[in-house]
Write a structure and sequence with these properties.
The protein is an alpha/beta fold. It has 2 domains: 120 residues, 3-Layer(aba) Sandwich (Rossmann fold); 168 residues, NAD(P)-binding Rossmann-like Domain (Rossmann fold). The protein has 12 helices and 11 strands. The strands form 2 sheets. The chain has a 6-stranded parallel β-sheet with strand order 8-7-6-9-10-11, with helices on both faces. Strand 10, helix 7 and strand 11 form a beta-alpha-beta unit. Helix 11 packs across helix 12. It starts with a strand and ends with a helix. The mean pLDDT is 96.
């Protein structure tokens, strides 16, 4: 394990497993979201925290941020729900653990948390970002993440099809949560042809004129680009042979079940954009505005740079005969020294 620090403790108020993984502070304070999710066992949450924090180091490095990677995971047992009081206890427990790290790590929203939760964590530690604008923060990062996804989609279409124009292209958007819904809206505005799905049937209300299908059908839909926008791990040796797309690019974290799966995509001629590059828009905006006090215009310019970063990675992969994953990790290691 190459992490600098991993804390696993039982919350003093909630009694739930609180996991905080700090992967690297080489470039500066580690950053990464706070995830509250169900896991079969708390060790599965630990595995998630280790993988996500390492990916965040690469994400920050490739985005040009003066930060390293970290992650918080609260591992809920199957079937466990949180009422308002229990949720507050969990968030205070998280804040205490982060405070104990002495500034080495700051957290923001992730799966299962939002800007309002960051306000509660901030009652215990100042090392938090993406609080609501009314509370002095940078607000919900999901739209900025989606803006970065659009930049990445233009870059991957330019590389794969010779044109960055999204109009008339077929996209399969799998997952219509906060980020996925924004991506769908932006693609619809570009007049793309859309197939969409979510495990939550109520999300059908945001599908608009897009074709609604089951998650399994969306994963294997005939499309130019598959856009994974929910939880990770969907690209596996079992699913890759069934894909019917030319490229994969989306904001879901840890899309590959294992690094070796990148080679399977490469062998099939499916161009995969590393998720830690595609999904960087939210963290770029939040850290630029809230932690480094840049203007919104400066942050927007940084987000647009995701396109050139991804283009460089794809060109490097092609020139060296490697996968985009290998090229991205090489680029990140170069920045980390």
């Amino acid at each position: 394990m190459d992490h600098e620090n991993v804390t696993v403790t039982r919350g003093t108020r909630s009694t739930l497993p609180i996991i905080v993984a700090v992967h690297s502070t080489l470039l500066g304070q580690a950053i990464g979201g706070c995830r509250i999710a169900h896991y079969p066992h708390w060790r599965d949450g630990l595995t998630d925290a280790l993988r996500l924090s390492a990916a965040m180091t690469d994400k920050a490095a490739l985005a040009g941020l003066p930060h390293g990677g970290g992650k918080t995971v609260v591992a809920l047992p199957p079937g466990r729900t949180l009422d308002a009081a229990a949720r507050r206890d969990v968030l205070h427990d998280v804040g205490d653990v982060i405070a104990g790290l002495g500034g080495r790590y700051a957290t923001g929203p992730d799966v299962g948390t939002g800007p309002d939760d960051m306000v509660v964590i901030a009652e215990r530690t100042g090392h938090v970002f993406c609080r609501p604008a009314a509370a002095g923060g940078s607000g919900d990062s999901s739209e900025h993440t989606a803006t970065g996804v659009l930049a990445a989609l233009r870059a991957i279409c330019a590389d794969r099809f010779g044109s960055a124009v999204l109009s008339g292209r077929r996209f399969a958007v799998l997952g219509l949560g906060r980020v996925g819904a924004h991506v769908l809206r932006m693609l619809a505005a570009e007049r793309a042809i859309l197939t969409v799905a979510d495990v939550d049937e109520t999300r059908r209300a945001v599908a608009g004129d897009a074709t609604w299908v089951s998650p399994e059908e969306c994963l294997t839909a005939e499309a130019d680009v598959l856009v994974p926008s929910a939880l990770g791990g969907l690209l596996t040796p079992a699913t890759v042979p069934r894909l019917r797309c030319a490229a994969v690019a989306g904001p879901a974290n840890n899309q590959l079940d294992a690094p070796e799966t990148a080679a399977l995509l490469h062998e099939r001629g499916i161009l995969w954009a590393p998720d830690f590059v595609v999904s960087a828009g939210g963290i770029i905006h939040a850290t630029a505005v809230e932690l480094h006090h840049e203007t919104t215009e400066q942050a927007t310019t940084r987000i647009a740079g995701i396109a050139s970063t991804l283009t460089g990675i794809l060109e490097s992969a092609r020139a060296t005969g490697t996968t985009p994953l290998a090229a991205a990790r090489t680029a990140a290691r170069l920045r980390l020294g």
